[in-house]
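Customer escalation, tier 2.

The customer says the design service returned an amino acid string that "doesn't look like it belongs to this structure." They asked us to rerun it and document both sides in this ticket. The original structure tokens are below, unchanged.
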């Protein structure tokens, strides 16, 4: 335990908080992998995809298991915090005494909701004996998901890794994470840079259909090409990440 009575060092808490904040976007990409809706096989084809009613979507068992494993890990540690710190679990914004009631159909126990709650109560987690294990368990579960979403980006062959990335369809957060794996040429393809290229229309959204509640999806290769076609001015280089 540290001098401030925390079982998890503050620099590790910062890493855990960053990971938990990224989970909602990451889980959207996992759902794409879950139903295999990245549609890589359609890339460059002339045949229009069939309607969902005509052809059921395939299903990824690995993606499903990874999502369930992460949900169990988050739920387990939330229960530990509630039991050991005397905290009552309530959806964010609907805590006891707030006077608010849950809207019809609101899912308070989905994985993004658990991640947001745990991120808000990280100090309570860190003050719980045995919580050191939570860090490894959560980060390991997230790493499994990342490897499912981007399985080929860690290939030792740079060209194979880049080719795999180019064909993939992701949201802006996913593209930012993938860019970190693609070498020096794309080291400045950070969150602000990706957002800028997309908002300026240099990279166009990938055609759907996508679920209405998903963020806009892009073909990674289109964003990579736009990044190289519109170089960053030297004075803006430091603020691009």
């Amino acid at each position: 335990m540290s001098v401030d009575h925390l079982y998890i060092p503050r620099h590790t808490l910062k890493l855990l908080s960053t990971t938990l904040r990224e989970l909602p976007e990451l889980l959207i990409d996992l759902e794409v992998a879950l139903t295999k809706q990245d549609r890589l096989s359609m890339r460059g084809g002339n045949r229009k995809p069939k309607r969902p009613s005509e052809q059921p979507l395939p299903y990824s068992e690995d993606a499903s298991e990874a999502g369930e494993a992460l949900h169990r890990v988050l739920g387990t540690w939330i229960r530990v915090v509630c039991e050991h710190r005397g905290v009552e679990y309530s959806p964010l914004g609907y805590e006891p005494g707030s006077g608010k009631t849950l809207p019809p159909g609101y899912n308070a126990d989905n994985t993004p909701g658990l991640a947001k709650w745990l991120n808000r109560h990280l100090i309570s987690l860190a003050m719980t004996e045995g919580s050191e294990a939570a860090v490894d368990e959560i980060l390991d579960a997230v790493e499994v998901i990342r490897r499912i979403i981007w399985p080929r980006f860690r290939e030792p062959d740079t060209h194979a890794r880049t080719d795999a990335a180019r064909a993939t369809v992701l949201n802006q957060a996913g593209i930012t994470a993938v860019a970190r794996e693609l070498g020096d040429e794309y080291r400045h393809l950070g969150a602000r840079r990706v957002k800028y290229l997309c908002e300026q229309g240099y990279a166009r959204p990938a055609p759907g259909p996508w679920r209405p509640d998903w963020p806009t999806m892009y073909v990674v290769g289109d964003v990579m090409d736009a990044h190289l076609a519109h170089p960053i001015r030297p004075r803006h280089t430091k603020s691009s990440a």
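Tier 2 assessment: The sequence is consistent with the input. The CA atoms of residues 210 and 217 lie 8 Å apart. Confidence is low (pLDDT under 50) at residues 38-58, 102-107, 236-241. Sent an explanation to the customer and offered a walkthrough call.
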